[in-house]
Design brief:
By secondary structure, this protein is α/β, with parallel strands linked by helices. It has helices spanning about 45-55, 75-85, 100-110, 115-130, 145-160, 175-190, 205, 240-254, and strands spanning about 5-15, 20-30, 35-40, 60-65, 70, 85-90, 165-170, 195-200, 210-215, 220-225. A six-stranded mixed sheet has the order 6-7-8-3-9-10, sandwiched between helices. Helix 3 crosses helix 4, helix 4 (about 115-130) packs across helix 5 (about 145-160) and helix 5 (about 145-160) packs parallel to helix 6 (about 175-190). Bound molecules: adenosine-5'-diphosphate (ADP) and magnesium ion.
């Protein structure tokens, strides 16, 4: 059974007397562990589709099954809880809490899972080290660069090991070198925990990180194809001895 099943989704916005068909009739099935890109030009409906799959917006018609649950039927309260337990987000503008340190920001999703403070901080620090921010643990967002803030955002999205991570133009505010770093971290993190990643972008090059590219034009899927990801999926068991040693060296260096 697929993890996400989008069935006949339609979204029509009304602004005064104008109707905007943001999504026409979308059908999709996404498996656990898939790294999927939704690719399209500005205004094609990418964010609307992501928001509906993540339960942030209600569709006009249709259903979104995650596992066996239809999130389109949930109340706002049920949705909030569902998101806290199952979903991680990475935003274009990072959306970190400005008064909180890097550790506090990353620890936040664990609070909703009822994990004790000491354990939360320990996990948050571990995740920040994984995104190479071990030396910025007590920094607040304004004391960090855009790339560093997004790395905090990545650590926060994955810390609670959600079923699905949604990323809407995660590198939209970053330069090209930082974009590569951030994309590699997101994809490696998703692969490491075998998590489903839904990545939204207008950029063909960024789409190349995905295992599957779903092309959206004017609220319709015009193609849906497998893609050879820049960062290949490799089962743990098939790692070469050299790679294992490199991993070991990286762990020891921490
Ligand atoms: N809240 C809204 N109210 C009215 N129209 C909207 C709203 N959000 C998005 N739209 C319209 O829906 C279409 C798709 O928007 P969006 O999903 O944001 O596209 P993308 O993320 O691909 O740039 C656009 O034409 C946009 O103007
Ligand atoms: Mg958008």
């Amino acid at each position: 059974m697929s993890l996400i099943h989008v069935k006949d989704i339609r979204k029509v916005y009304r602004v005064d007397k104008e109707r905007v068909v943001a999504l026409n009739r979308i059908n999709l099935e996404i498996e656990q562990g898939e790294i999927c890109c939704i690719l399209g030009t500005s205004g094609s409906g990418k964010s609307t589709l992501l928001n509906i799959m993540a339960g942030l917006e209600k569709p006009t018609k249709g259903s979104v099954l995650i596992g066996k649950q239809d999130i389109a039927q949930m109340t706002e309260k049920q949705l909030a809880l569902f998101r806290q337990l199952n979903i991680g987000f990475i935003f274009q503008s990072y959306n970190l809490m400005p008064t909180m340190t890097a550790v506090e920001n990353v620890a936040l999703p664990l609070m909703f899972k009822g994990i004790a403070r000491k354990e939360r901080n320990k996990e948050a620090k571990k995740m920040l080290k994984r995104v190479n921010l071990g030396s910025r643990l007590s920094h607040k967002p304004t004391q960090m660069s855009g790339g560093q803030q997004q790395r905090v955002g990545i650590a926060r999205a994955f810390v609670a090991k959600p079923k699905i991570v949604f990323a809407d133009e995660p590198t939209g505010n970053l330069d090209s070198k930082t974009t590569t770093e951030v994309m590699e971290m997101i994809v490696r993190m998703a692969r490491r925990y075998h998590e489903t990643l839904i990545l939204v972008t207008h950029d063909q090059e960024i789409a190349q990180y995905a295992d599957r590219i779903i092309h959206l034009v004017d609220g319709n899927i015009v193609s849906d194809k497998p893609n050879q990801s820049i960062i290949a999926a490799e089962p743990e068991t098939e790692k070469t001895a050299v790679e294992k040693n490199v991993d070991l060296a990286a762990e020891v260096a921490k």
